[in-house]
Amino acid sequence: VVEYEEDLAGRQMIIERVRTRSMASSSARERPSGEQIDDNLGRLLRVANENK
């Protein structure tokens, strides 16, 4: 039973990861993925800079 619960938790994490990734890619589908990665990185760096 414990192994089954652990497997379910791992599977749920994978589902969440895929869901967030698919939402991010669908919101910027018209742009190449490289630009999207740069945009996400730029946004992350900007937030990190504001929170110093």
Oligomer: single chain
Please give the number of β-strands.
Answer: 0
Beta-strand proportion:
under 5%
Mean pLDDT: 70
Task: Indicate how many domains the architecture comprises.
Answer: 1
What Rg, in angstroms, do the CA atoms define?
A: 16 Å
Q: Structural class, from secondary structure content?
A: mainly alpha
Cα distance, first to last residue? 46 Å
Number of DSSP helices?
2
Instruction: Report the major sheet.
Output: none
Helix percent reads: over 70%
Shape estimate = elongated
Order of helices and strands: HH
Give the uncertain stretches in residue-range form: none
Protein name: Kinesin motor domain-containing protein
Organism: Nymphaea colorata
Region (Disordered): 21-43
Describe the structure in your own words.
This protein has helices at residues 2-27, 33-50. It contains 2 helices and no strands. It starts with a helix and ends with a helix. The chain has one domain (2-50). The protein has 52 residues and is mainly α. The mean pLDDT is 70.
